[in-house]
Amino acid sequence: MENGVTVVDHPLVQHKLTIMRDKNTPTAQFRQLLREISQFLAYEATRDLALGTCEIETPLVPMQAPIMDGKKPALISILRAGNGLLDGVLDLVPAARVGFVGLYRDEETLKPVQYYCKLPQNMDQRFAIVVDPMLATGNSSVAAIDLVKEHGAKDILFLCLLAAPEGIERMRTAHPDVPIVTAAIDEKLNDLGYIVPGLGDAGDRMFGTV
Question: What pLDDT, on the 0 to 100 scale, is given for residue 110?
Fold first, then answer.
């Protein structure tokens, strides 16, 4: 981790990401690859989950075995594109509680506009993973984490597929206590606030609304 950011540079992640970047990759394959990559990212994001022990019996002997401890983690999807990552993370942590924050970007101001927020109970006792494929300007991500903190969460991580340096700086300034896990840090934002080289609009490519 450097400056609060972990880049998951596993060869399979980078290979799959390259296919996702290709403008000719069809919607179904794009969606499947995002789900697969999200599991690699979730593996890194959940590395420090608290463990307790419980007694079980193997076919040979009783033993004290490690088991996840405390309240179930909370996965918070920033709608709509966050759902592409959410499904893969849930495959890995199926008992997690799930919340949603609805934000859309005003294309003129590039500022987020909230239209929905529904989070699990007891957020102050849960490890919260906020998911959104793109950390571009960082405005939506910061606004979502603002809401999660307002609901009491203290232990928060942000998980994304791609990040721009501008978005990272915005997040580190607004929420320096929130680590970031991503598959790649790209070059920059263009004048429209899209990540370059990027992969286009993740939500449009995921749902076929290009």
Answer: 67
Q: Give the CA dihedral 1, 145, 203, 9, nearest 10 degrees.
A: 10
Structure letter (DSSP) for residue 132: -
Compute the distance between CA of residue 141 and CA of residue 59 in angstroms, rounded to an integer. 47
Q: Model pTM greater than 0.90?
A: yes
Looking at the DSSP bridge assignments, the partners of residue 117 are 101
Q: How many CB atoms lie within 10 A of CB 202?
A: 25
The catalytic residue positions are 105, 109, 201, 204
List C-alpha distances in Å: 82 to 85, 140, 157, 174: 6, 11, 14, 20
For residue 204, name the pLDDT band (cuts at 50, 70, 90): confident
Domains and CATH numbers, the chain: 5-46+73-207 (3.40.50.2020)
